[in-house]
Amino acid sequence: MIKQLLTFTACAAFLAIPTGSALAQNATGGEASIETGASYSSRRGGIAFIGLNADNLFGRGIDIRLGYQASQDGRALNANVSQTYQLGQTALGQDTYLRGTLTGRASDWSSQDYSLAHYGAEITAGAETASGLHYRGRIFWQSDSVDDFDEDISPLAAIPLDNSTAIGVGVGLGYSTFTDTNPLATGLNLQGNVTLATPLGDREWVAAEVSGQYNAAIADGMVLALAAETGQINGRNGQDVHIADRAFIGNPMPRGFAYTGIGPRDVSGDRVDTALGGNSYLTSSAELRIATPYPAVVVGIFADAGALWDLDETEGGASAVIDDSYALRTSAGLSVYWDTQIGLVQINAAKPIAKQDNDKIENFSINLNFQF
């Protein structure tokens, strides 16, 4: 599915050090920057990263995002290159655009039960109506590989992919009144997407996701932030959903649980402990954010909830039958947002309230919202 991401987290201790950022601007108005830094994760140890960002390169609408992370536990590479053509007012609406995008992701962590590689290409067209509604349509191709399985991986997850393709179309609708990404920004953001992988590729599925964010000022320097997201993916023409396409949740939402720490899991003694993901997910959050005397720092008090459930196959695991039923997890805690030169650092201290026996708890975490 789409709900898969890379975060830097810490369970017992944490440290993030932005070490540098260099910015250059060309004569045509584009910008490029090189950013470096480091973080610490009790799961993956010290992690160093370097990123290259370029916006409107050569004044031709070309955007580039490159990022590389490395530690003793492994490495990950993310790349995204896009070119956007602004078409202005057309029969489709105002601010019409056409965008071509190439993506690539690869990760190989020893603390992960397998290695992943993803390559994709898509063409997106979109516009905005007079009422402020954004809509878009896209065609996509992607190729995924899953291999290098650990010896102790669940039999339900050890299903290799070798450049397996998915080819299809997607449509999306969105509406937003936000004009800033600051934690104290106010506004309404609604998004919905439907994606169909057709018989033209090796894998066939249909997925839908809906999300909403509403931030309202309730006093001077105080904002109530409400958010919710849900999604589901189903295989088509008798196909099961592969682990590469399923959803995984946990840090950064809901906080208090490690990423991949919630949902169906195959656990057998001290040998097998594999997160299987799920075909359906739900997350929500309510947070009171408060300004501090330091303009770059905002603190928050939050309550989060989340659930991940539904597998196509639950029999044949190392622990026999897998429990893939719906079970809501909840947590509460404190957060700190620190706006640095290279991105927003978010520090969380959370305590799970409702949890399951095999969940992976993460009472402290730090996330650097550095976009790749």
The number of helices is 0
Q: Describe the global form.
A: globular
Mean pLDDT rating: 88
The count of DSSP E runs of length 2 or more, i.e. the number of strands, is 19
Number of domains: 1
- Which assembly state applies to the chains in this document? single chain
Radius of gyration: 21 Å
Secondary structural class: mainly beta
Helical fraction equals under 10%
Work out the strand percent.
over 45%
Largest β sheet strand count, sense and barrel closure:
17 strands, antiparallel
Give the topology, please.
Elements: E1 15-25, E2 31-41, E3 45-57, E4 62-71, E5 74-90, E6 93-109, E7 115-128, E8 134-147, E9 161-176, E10 187-197, E11 205-219, E12 222-235, E13 265-268, E14 272-275, E15 280-291, E16 297-309, E17 329-340, E18 343-354, E19 364-369
Antiparallel strand pairs: 1-2, 2-3, 3-4, 4-5, 5-6, 6-7, 7-8, 8-9, 9-10, 10-11, 11-12, 12-15, 13-14, 15-16, 16-17, 17-18, 18-19
Give a brief outline of the structure.
With 372 residues, the chain is an all-beta fold.
Explained architecture:
The chain is mostly beta strands and 372 residues long. The protein has one domain: membrane protein fhac: a member of the omp85/tpsb transporter family (Porin). Helix content is 0%, strand content 61%. It has a 17-stranded antiparallel β-sheet, with no helix packed on it. Strands 13-14 form a two-stranded antiparallel sheet. A hairpin with a 5-residue loop joins strand 6 and strand 7 (115-128). It is globular, with a radius of gyration of 21 Å.
